[in-house]
């Protein structure tokens, strides 16, 4: 996304000076997309040569889109080399790595932008405006449910995300988007979290129930793949074949591991009760095996409530998705003493409900955009608060206890603005 945006939309303002990857095959595929007329192509470096890349190419900004557990390492090294950073969510996955980032930022004064594209969706921005304008009075409580379907949700259980040491689990990797939205919508930060989580669907027993006994360790070569709705055929997709199947010899990474493996270390069903510094409380649910994909959220206020629902995928039938259209986004306003009414939801073109083009515009051409009165840009502080709910939720699942976030931070010597 970042590469193509620079090349296609902002080539007059930026240029890609180098690409870096741990896999030589994928690196070569990425380089094909970066035109360099009259040269031998864009400079490429393996991950082991990242410091040499910085020394030779002297970039102003480093875009970090690695697996989550590596974010902190590259952010800190970029800071120390005098570079700013654009980082995919989540900022990082645990407290020790968060401290490295916070300390390095304080030491170097460099900037990291965490790309929370959900903030830039017109529908989510409208909710921010409704709440900030006091339409429902003071927000007192929130119910937030996010549904991942059996295509998108399943994919986290076959990739590197399936182990918490890589991703922090879905409460960090995926929910960081949702917790960031709550922080931004409410204009507050979380203080305490009580959570539960378990793996109830993506496990060996489910495979047996579905008649998939005798399954293989991955989809490629699996003896029951033909009757499995969760099969991922890497050879059938040109992009997946080039980036993963034909690149396996470089590093042994398999993109199509079985979603029912015993060794999977993340939950597929999670719930959290969150308390905020402002006094708001929120109940949050994430499931990764829903028959549809999207979100449902209700804000309770002293003057009424807002109910927002976005159906991204109508359903999953035989492993195939039935995509919804843009009209599947609804926002209902119900003020006390009045009948409920639907609020017209603004629409925009582009991925993630029109969010990506807007976000990329503010990242790559801020002077060409109107001033952002919604404060959607996210630095290391916003990135930190977005993961702290998930980190606290993981700790609560492990201990069965309520987790105080400030106590958690003090114990690690992490100092954040609140």
UniProtKB/TrEMBL annotation:
Organism, as annotated: Neorhizobium phenanthreniclasticum
Where do the Gfo/Idh/MocA-like oxidoreductase N-terminal domain residues begin and end?
Answer: 11-116
Provide the coiled-coil residue spans: none
Query: Under what name is this protein listed?
Result: Gfo/Idh/MocA family oxidoreductase
Every copy of the Gfo/Idh/MocA-like oxidoreductase C-terminal domain together lies at 128-404
Q: Which domain of life is it from?
A: Bacteria
């Amino acid at each position: 996304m970042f590469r193509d945006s620079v090349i296609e939309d902002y080539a007059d303002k930026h240029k890609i000076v180098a690409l870096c990857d741990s896999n030589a095959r994928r690196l070569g595929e990425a380089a094909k997309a970066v035109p360099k007329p009259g040269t031998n192509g864009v400079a490429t470096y393996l991950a082991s040569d990242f410091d040499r890349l910085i020394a030779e190419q002297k970039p102003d900004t480093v875009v970090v889109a690695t697996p989550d557990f590596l974010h902190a390492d590259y952010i800190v090294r970029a800071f120390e080399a005098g570079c700013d950073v654009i980082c995919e969510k989540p900022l990082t996955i645990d407290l020790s790595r968060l401290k490295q980032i916070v300390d390095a930022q304080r030491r170097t004064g460099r900037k990291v932008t965490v790309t929370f594209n959900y903030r830039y969706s017109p529908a989510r921005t409208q909710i921010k405006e409704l709440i900030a304008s006091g339409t429902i009075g003071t927000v007192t409580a929130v119910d937030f449910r996010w549904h991942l379907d059996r295509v998108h949700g399943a994919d986290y259980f076959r990739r590197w995300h399936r182990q918490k040491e890589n991703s922090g689990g879905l409460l960090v990797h995926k929910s960081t988007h949702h917790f960031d939205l709550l922080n931004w919508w409410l204009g507050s930060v979380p203080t305490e979290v009580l959570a539960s989580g378990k793996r109830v669907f993506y496990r060996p027993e489910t495979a047996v129930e579905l008649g998939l006994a005798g399954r293989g360790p991955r989809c490629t070569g699996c003896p029951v793949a033909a009757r499995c709705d969760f099969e991922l055929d890497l050879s059938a997709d040109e992009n997946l074949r080039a980036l993963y199947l034909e690149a396996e010899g470089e590093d042994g990474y398999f993109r199509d591991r079985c979603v029912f493996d015993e060794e999977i270390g993340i939950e597929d069903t999670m719930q959290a009760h969150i308390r905020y510094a402002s006094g708001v409380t929120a109940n949050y649910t994430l499931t990764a095996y829903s028959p549809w994909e999207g979100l449902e959220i209700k804000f309770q206020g002293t003057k009424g409530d807002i109910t927002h629902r976005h159906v991204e995928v109508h359903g999953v039938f035989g492993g195939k998705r039935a995509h919804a259209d843009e009209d599947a986004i609804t926002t209902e306003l119900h003020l006390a003493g009045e009948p409920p009414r639907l609020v017209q939801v603004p629409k925009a073109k582009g991925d993630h409900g029109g969010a990506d083009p807007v976000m990329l515009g503010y990242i790559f051409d801020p002077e060409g955009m109107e001033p952002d009165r919604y404060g959607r840009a996210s630095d290391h502080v916003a990135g930190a608060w977005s993961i702290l709910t998930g980190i606290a939720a993981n700790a609560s699942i492990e201990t069965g206890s309520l987790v105080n976030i400030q106590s958690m931070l003090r114990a690690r010597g992490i100092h954040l603005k609140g």
